[in-house]
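From the methods appendix. Each design record in this collection lists the discretized structure first, followed by the designed amino acid sequence. Records were kept in a plain field format so they could be parsed without special tools. The example shown here is representative of the layout used throughout.

RECORD:
C-ALPHA CELLS (372 positions):
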C-alpha cells in the first residue's frame, strides 16, 4: 500500500491504520468520537495527502476545463476555488473535484485518491493538443485544518490575511516558514482550511500546526472522524454516493451543473432532467434502536425494497444512527416512514432532510458564506 509523507509521524502518535483506495492511512488517533467532537467544537488536523492534484495549463486551459466539468469555470478569478464534477457522455460521474484557478492559463484539480490515475488519463486524452496536463500528486502533501478554531490557529502561523479570505478562495503564503497554498475549503461541514505544500515539508507543517493549536484543543484526526463529519453534513463520497452509474441530478448536485455551456455529459443530463430522475439521494434516520445503517442495507417501504443505503454512521453530534442512500423518487419525501433492513431485522426509520447538521453562522461570516 502507498503511504503519505506523514506515515512515520502517525505511527509515533499511535494511530490505528486502515487501507483506503490503495493507501495505508490513519483511521483514528485518540478515538473517532473524540476527534469528531474536536472538529465540531474546536479543531482537528487531517492528513489528506492521498488526494490527487492535477494541473491543466496553457492558453486553452479555460476552454478545456469548461468542456470537461459541469460548473461554470469562466466565473473563476485568480484565487478562486470551485466544486464541480467530471462526467462521462452517459452523464455518470467520473469524479467530483475541486478546481482552483492559479492564473488565467493555470488550473489545479484536487481529485479523489481512488480516481487519480483514471482522471489523469481521461483529462490527458481530452486535452491533447490543446493544454498540458501535469500530475502533481507525488510532489504535493495536503493537510486539512478544520473546525471553529481553525482560522485562529492558522493565523498564528502565517502573515497571510486568513481572516479576510472568504470560503472557496485561496492565497499563496508561508505557514511557519513552509510555502503553501491556503484554501478555505474542507469536507467536514465546519469552517477550515486545506493546505497544499511540498511533500518534503509536510512533517514540518504538521508539527507547526499541532503546536500552534495545542492550547485550543486541536487534535490529529483520522478517516473515521472524516467520514462521520461528512455524513452529518450530507457530503458525497465517491464510490458510495457517486460513481459512473450515478448522475449529478440523482445525487442532488444539479446546482453545480451550468446548463448554459457545452460540456461532456450535458445531452444525457438534459434528457434526464426532462424525463425526471427515478431515484434520489436521501437522508435516513433510524427512529428505533437496532444498529447502524451500513452500505448495501435495503430501504423498505411497506416491506418492499425501494432503495439502499450508501453510507451510514452513529452520529456523534446528533446521537442518532443516520445514513445516506438512494430511494425511488416517489419515496424521497422528508418525514416518510420507512424501514432499514439491518441484518435480519427491519428497523423503523424516516426519510430525513440533507444535511443532517448545519453549523451555526453569525454576522460577517454568514454574509461571506452566503455570497460564495
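DESIGN:
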Amino acid at each position: 500500500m502507498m503511504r503519505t509523507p506523514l506515515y512515520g509521524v502517525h505511527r509515533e502518535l499511535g494511530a490505528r491504520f486502515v487501507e483506503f483506495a490503495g493507501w495505508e492511512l490513519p483511521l483514528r488517533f485518540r478515538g473517532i468520537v473524540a476527534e469528531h467532537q474536536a472538529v465540531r467544537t474546536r479543531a482537528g488536523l487531517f492528513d489528506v495527502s492521498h488526494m490527487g492534484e492535477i494541473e491543466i495549463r496553457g492558453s486553452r486551459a479555460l476552454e478545456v476545463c469548461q468542456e470537461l466539468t459541469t460548473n461554470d469555470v469562466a466565473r473563476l478569478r485568480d484565487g478562486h476555488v470551485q466544486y464541480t464534477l467530471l462526467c462521462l457522455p452517459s452523464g455518470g460521474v467520473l469524479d467530483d473535484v475541486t478546481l482552483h484557478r492559479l492564473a488565467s492559463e493555470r488550473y489545479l484539480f484536487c481529485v479523489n485518491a481512488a480516481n487519480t490515475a483514471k482522471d489523469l488519463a481521461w483529462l490527458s486524452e481530452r486535452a491533447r493538443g490543446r493544454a498540458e496536463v501535469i500530475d502533481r500528486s507525488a510532489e504535493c502533501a495536503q493537510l486539512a485544518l478544520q473546525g471553529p478554531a481553525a482560522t485562529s490557529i492558522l493565523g498564528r502561523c502565517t502573515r497571510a490575511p486568513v481572516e479576510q479570505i472568504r470560503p472557496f478562495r485561496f492565497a499563496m503564503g508561508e505557514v511557519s516558514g513552509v510555502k503553501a497554498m491556503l484554501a478555505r475549503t474542507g469536507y467536514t461541514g465546519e469552517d477550515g482550511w486545506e493546505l497544499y505544500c511540498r511533500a518534503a515539508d509536510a512533517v514540518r507543517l504538521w508539527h507547526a500546526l499541532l503546536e500552534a493549536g495545542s492550547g485550543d484543543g486541536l487534535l490529529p484526526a483520522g478517516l473515521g472522524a472524516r467520514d462521520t463529519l461528512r455524513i452529518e453534513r450530507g457530503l458525497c463520497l465517491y464510490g458510495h454516493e457517486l460513481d459512473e452509474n450515478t448522475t449529478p441530478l440523482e445525487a442532488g448536485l444539479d446546482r453545480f451543473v451550468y446548463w448554459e455551456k457545452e460540456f461532456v455529459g450535458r445531452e444525457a443530463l438534459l434528457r434526464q432532467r426532462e424525463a425526471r430522475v427515478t431515484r434520489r439521494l436521501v437522508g435516513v434516520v433510524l427512529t428505533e434502536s437496532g444498529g447502524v445503517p451500513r452500505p448495501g442495507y435495503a430501504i423498505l417501504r411497506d416491506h418492499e425494497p425501494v432503495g439502499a443505503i450508501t453510507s451510514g454512521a452513529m452520529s456523534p453530534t446528533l446521537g442518532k444512527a443516520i445514513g445516506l442512500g438512494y430511494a425511488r423518487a416517489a419515496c424521497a419525501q422528508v418525514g416518510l416512514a420507512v424501514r432499514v433492513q439491518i441484518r435480519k431485522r427491519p428497523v423503523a426509520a424516516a426519510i430525513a432532510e440533507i444535511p443532517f447538521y448545519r453549523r451555526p453562522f453569525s454576522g460577517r461570516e454568514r454574509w461571506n458564506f452566503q455570497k460564495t
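APPENDIX NOTE: The longest strand covers residues 93-103.
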